[in-house]
Specification:
By secondary structure, the chain is of the alpha/beta class. It is 50% helix and 13% strand. The chain is built from 13 helices and eight strands. It has helices spanning 2-14, 29-40, 52-74, 78-90, 98-102, 116-127, 145-149, 183-195, 211-228, 233-243, 250-257, 259-272, 283-290, and strands at residues 21-25, 44-48, 92-95, 107-110, 135-138, 158-163, 172-177, 199-204. The protein has an eight-stranded mixed sheet. Strand 6 (158-163) and strand 7 (172-177) form a beta hairpin. The longest helix is centred in the N-terminal third of the chain and has 23 residues, at 52-74.
């Protein structure tokens, strides 16, 4: 009998649990996108922000996005569009009281600034408040998950959920597990991602996970080529589009992502892995950021977007 009980307990612990209530900390572009896909897939969602003004901005953005999705999905059937938008919005609430929200949630997804100390402080503050079963996840694109998780006492219930922008459109979700992430946490995270309609892949806690680990050094090497005068930015972009079949060249992509974002990621990796030459600072990248040339969002980067 004892063997049977142990088998049942072991099976239950490794099978994961069902996520019903999702708490998202940070209601910016990424956080609100995650909130939208979680709500449309039937989850109860609470967005947490510093003030009501930020929450209101997020709600308005989500509603507009849902209306676009509804029109695409239901064509001219206004009643179905309205029903879809209202039903989804009804599942989303907002709060500025982080501690009270995390007391009753199944998963906390952090989508705040890319700063290790800030993330550690955040998770440390809610570790003793959240239920023991609550899973903590970070949407970081560059910081090692374990470094963030160290601030808590739940290394086994901590993972990375790296969504891509724009979240409602991009199908990929990188599920990142550390050596301490339990099978139950991993299974729950994968099931949750699939319910959101994402194609989930698994990655160890390596710099940049899969996509950014390949993409950022690729963009950085393109800048180094430009610095050396090997080719122009335009010719390098054309080469990668026509020669490698990429939809965008590395400089077009850098401008789209944000040159400051790429520089910040490189800086984080260089600090953690100072001996890796791929992560060495790039003078041209630093100069563009100092000049406020971040790419499309600032009107100028490697190319000019000023009208």
């Amino acid at each position: 009998m004892s063997n049977l009980i142990n088998h049942v307990i072991k099976r239950t612990m490794s099978s994961g649990t069902v996520i019903n209530h999702v708490t998202i900390i940070g209601a910016g572009l990424m956080g609100s996108g995650i909130a939208q896909v979680a709500a449309t897939s039937g989850h109860r969602v609470t967005m947490v922000e510093l003030d009501e003004k930020l929450l209101d901005k997020a709600r308005k953005g989500i509603q507009k996005s849902l209306e676009r999705v509804g029109k695409k999905q239901f064509k001219d059937e206004e009643s179905k569009i309205t029903g879809f938008v209202n039903e989804s919005m009804d599942r989303i609430s907002g709060s500025t009281d982080l501690s009270s929200v995390v007391k009753d949630t199944d998963i906390v997804i952090e989508a705040i600034v890319e700063n290790l100390e800030v993330k550690q402080k955040l998770f440390s503050s809610i570790d003793g408040v959240a239920k023991p079963s609550t899973i903590f996840a970070s949407n970081t694109s560059s910081i090692p998950i374990k470094e963030i998780a160290k601030s808590t006492q739940r290394l086994d219930r901590f993972c990375g959920l790296h969504f891509f922008n724009p979240v409602p459109v991009m199908k990929l979700l990188e599920v990142v597990r550390t050596p301490e992430t339990s099978d139950a946490t991993y299974t729950t995270a994968m099931d949750f991602g699939k319910k959101l309609g994402k194609t989930c892949i698994t990655c160890k806690d390596t710099p940049g996970f899969v996509v950014n680990r390949l993409l950022v050094p690729y963009m950085a090497e393109a800048v180094r080529m430009l610095e050396r005068g090997d080719a122009t930015a335009r010719d390098i972009d054309i080469a990668m589009k026509l020669g490698a079949g990429y939809p965008m060249g590395p400089f077009e992509l850098s401008d789209y992502v944000g040159i400051d974002t790429t520089q910040k990621i490189m800086g984080i990796w260089h600090k953690i892995y100072p001996d890796n030459p791929l992560f060495e600072p790039i003078p041209m990248l630093n100069k563009l950021v100092e000049e406020g040339k971040f790419g499309m969002k600032s009107g100028e980067g490697f190319y000019s977007y000023k009208k």
